[in-house]
Amino acid sequence: MIRAMVLVMCISAASGVSAQEAGAPEGAAAPAVQTISADAEWAYLKKCGEDKDDEVAEAVLPDIETWLAAHPDAADAPEAQLLKARIHLRLGDYRAAIVDLLKHLQEYPEAVSGPSARKLFTETVGKKLDEKNAKILNEIAKTPDAAADKAARLADAFGKLAARAGEDFYEPLVGEFRAFFGRFLSYAGRDVLQLELGDLHAKKGEYLAAKLAYEKVIRVYPGSLFMATAKRALGDVLANNLKEYDAAINVYQDVASSYPGTEEAWAAYVQLSKLPERQKKYALAVEIHEKIIALYPDKDAAYDSYSAEARI
Fold it and tell me: How far is CA 26 from the centre of its chain?
């Protein structure tokens, strides 16, 4: 209710009419088609977003985000992205602001607002982050090749941030991953980004979300070159975090049989050497130990499997 009142006041201020006048006359028929001007909408959003009242800026922030999602390539989009960051800073959310600014620097490297975004990014990172994370963010935010594919630039930046400091920027970063998936439907590296999102969830301790992200890679991208990695990661979350041991055993068996000789297969055998006995699947446990002895005779685990098999 408060947000609606705030936005009506912004409309009135921008148009020069009262809130009552802004509404349609009583009994008037609505037009069949309304043409929406992106420029006019942005002018209104900008006025509200720059209002000195923080409540007004906070109220209009979701509408700025919606406008950006609808018009990411508009002439005013870089300015809107910068305004979004400024509002987040005003509201005390410096993490969201840093992600906003990182996106600005990667998506709009040649924008007029670029120097302002760069200056604000450098200042915020320097003030809010420790030396280690500041170095990471500054490395990721290096000026990109403007001729490179925009989707690739964004995916690279988000992936690096997720891998190196994702836990600290979890919420705004997850939001950017989701926005990316909705926007760049034909990007060739979606499977990689989905895998990186799963890893981000796992690092944050959001294990169910991680499980679903890994399963999405497996089911939606069956031709992915990273299928073994995704399956191994799924198995690890099931076994180590969600305690779904039977499901983990099935996944590890698939990895071990489908990708022989790989690092993922070896990791699967290591896990399989522990799980079946825990689940009282003794025949399977003996079978796994025999395979380890046959396939990896030079590893220390082979000796452990000899001992475990004799004990079982």
Answer: 46
Instruction: Of 42, 53, 38, give the one whose Cα is nearest residue 6.
Output: 53
Do 161 and 103 contact (CB within 8 A), yes or no?
no
Condensed to tens digits (0 to 9), the pLDDT of residues 200-223 reads 999 999 999 999 999 999 999 999
- 272-300 residues labelled b (16+ CB within 10 A) or e (exposed): bbebbbeeebeebbbebbebbbeebeeee
* Ranges assigned E (strand) in 29-116: none
> Using CB atoms within 10 A of its CB, is residue 57 exposed (0-12), middle (13-18) or buried (19+)?
buried
The token pair at 18 is: 């009262």
- Name the residue with tokens 């870089």: 78
Q: At what angle do helices 150-165 and 170-183 cross, to 10 degrees?
A: 150
pTM listed for this prediction = 0.84
Mean pLDDT score of the chain, rounded to an integer? 88
**Contact assessment for residue 290 and residue 309, using Cβ atoms and an 8 Å cutoff:** yes
3-state secondary structure of 74: coil
Tokens of 71: 């018009």
Q: Which of 108-117, 119-128, 265-274 has the lowest mean pLDDT?
A: 265-274
Q: Per-residue b/e over 28-38, b at no fewer than 16 CB within 10 Å?
A: eeeeeeeeeee
Our measurement of the distance from residue 38's CA atom to the centroid of its chain's CA atoms, rounded to an integer in Å, reads 27
Structure tokens at 116: 């302002």
Closest Cα partner for 250 from 222, 279, 221? 279
Show the tokens assigned to 164.
């190196």
Amino acid occupying residue 232: R
Question: Please, what is the Cα angle at 193 between 188 and 197, to 5 degrees?
Answer: 160
With contact defined as beta carbons under 8 Å apart, do 86 and 106 qualify?
no
